[in-house]
Amino acid sequence: MFPKTMAAVCALSTALAAPALAQEVRADLRDEALDMFSPLPSTIPSVTDNPITAEKIDLGKALFFDPRMSASGVFSCNSCHNLATGGDDNLETSIGHGWQKGPRNAPTVLNAVFNAAQFWDGRAPDLAAQAKGPVQAGVEMANTPDNVLATLNSMPQYVAWFRGAFPEQDEPVSFDNFAKAIEAYEATLLTPAPFDAWLNGNDDALTEEQVRGLQTFVDAGCASCHNGINLGGQDYFPFGLVEKPGADVLPEDDKGRFAVTETAYDEYVFRAAPLRNIEVTAPYFHSGKVWDLRTAVEIMASSQLGAELSEGELDDVVAFLGSLTGEMPEVSYPVLPAETGDTPRPTA
Ligand code: HEM
Ligand code: HEM
After folding, report:
1. pLDDT in tens, 12-34
2. Nearest bound ligand to CA 182?
3. Ligand nearest to the CA of 249
4. SS3 letters for the chain?
5. ipTM greater than 0.90, yes or no?
6. Which of 91, 141, 158, 220 is the most exposed place for a label (fewest CB within 10 A)?
7. Which position among 140, 183, 186, 313 bears the catalytic label?
8. How much is the mean pLDDT over the chain?
9. Nearest atom, ligand 2, residue 286 CA
10. Are 313 and 217 in contact (CB under 8 A)?
11. Which residue CA neighbors atom 40 of ligand 1 most closely?
């Protein structure tokens, strides 16, 4: 009897000790993680030179969804950054004006406000500078600032909304303010995820597999490039730091940041991609050539770290990346002002 009871006591104490140890490991990992990552803030972040107000957010939302901001009247920001599908278009590379296929995959607009710079090559310093690009890009919305302003000025409701959003200005309907309003709206597109809850102290927010995946993500070196609030979006690195992927993944004609800085050092250098909601924003990489997240992780391990992850490690890392899928912003479709006789007509 006695030895049996002892055995039971020992088994019980081992059973009790195991979770305690795991909890200690989790606490250490959390401390380590908090040095590298930050949880999403629970309020709308402030943006430089653009105080965010409810009026600006509402105007920005209308502009984000308005296809009449494009020359054809077909494409809105939401066409390629669809808020119903993870803030992107789920295409290899985007389709824009005149059914043209653009050169790069569309990144998500969700949480983009936290990126240090915008675009795969970081060529726009912030969301307001960024928003002026697609409107004018021939393969996206193919419009001109003048035509955007003529369109907006033709609809009294838009003029009133601009007045409300920029009350201190004499001429509130401007291309700068168009971009600022969109930036204000985009700053609201935040997706708090289980990983945030875990960073904030909730052990139950991640599964065991996800915790192991986080440990691998940190230990293998992924976090040396993918860190900060967005687990990326902060700095630039050669795609193929250790071993250049084939042209099927890294097409030779897109030299990334080289086009921005024109220094040889920046050839094939790209912004470490932000990884929030990565599970729902396939296909991957600026080329959009990889549809499977596990394959994308394998490519990263070999190209950036010269490492081969085991099957189990790959499963864990992919599970961890799943913990970055957040609660999507609830979006009610805006009702937009009707055109008037003065509204410029769509062009083909
Ligand atoms: C990049 C917003 C219209 C396709 C981006 C980014 C933002 C954004 C914030 C950068 C995200 C990041 O770097 O993480 C907008 C807004 C639009 C708009 C506010 C409307 C004014 C469009 C349209 C298309 C499109 C209509 C497709 C036809 C893309 C692509 C990129 C991009 C392909 C990546 C380009 C590169 O890195 O060179 N957009 N977008 N966007 N967007 Fe848009
Ligand atoms: C892109 C994960 C290591 C730099 C990506 C993407 C994923 C990912 C899933 C695709 C993002 C998208 O398509 O939106 C990982 C994992 C890593 C790792 C799991 C560890 C195994 C690294 C390291 C660096 C790095 C160490 C820097 C040396 C980049 C860059 C891109 C990227 C520059 C953009 C590539 C492009 O232009 O298409 N990463 N990454 N990554 N990562 Fe990593």
Report:
1. 444 444 454 467 778 899 999 99
2. 1
3. 2
4. CHHHHHHHHHHHHHHHHHHHHHHHHHHHHHHHHHHHECCCCCCCCCCCCCCCCHHHHHHHHHHHHCHHHCCCCCCCHHHHCECCCCCECCCCCCEEHHHEECCCCCCCCCCHHHCCCECCCCCECCHHHHHHHHHHCCCCCCCCHHHHHHHHHCCHHHHHHHHHHCCCCCCCCCHHHHHHHHHHHHCCCCCCCHHHHHHCCCHHHCCHHHHHHHHHHHHHCHHHCCCECCCCCCCEEECCCCCCCCCCCCCCCCCECHHHHCCHHHCCEEECCCCCCHHHCCCECCCCCECCHHHHHHHHHHHHHCCCCCHHHHHHHHHHHHCCCCCCCCCCCCCCCCCCCCCCCCCC
5. yes
6. 91
7. 140
8. 93
9. 38
10. no
11. 77
The reply to whether 140 belongs to the active site is yes
The two tokens of residue 46 are: 């402030």
> How close is the Cα of 106 to the center of ligand 1, in Å?
6
Both tokens of residue 130? 């960024």
Residue 22 pLDDT: 66
> Can you tell me the distance from the alpha carbon of 222 to that of 313, in angstroms, rounded to the nearest whole number?
13
Average pLDDT over residues 142-158: 97
Pocket of ligand 1 (CB under 6 A): 75, 77, 79-81, 94, 96, 102, 104, 106-107, 109, 112, 115, 118-120, 127, 130-131, 134-135, 140-141, 182, 274
CA 67 – ligand 1 centroid, Å: 14
Shortest-distance Cα residue to atom 20 of ligand 1: 77
Q: Which amino acid is at 211?
A: V
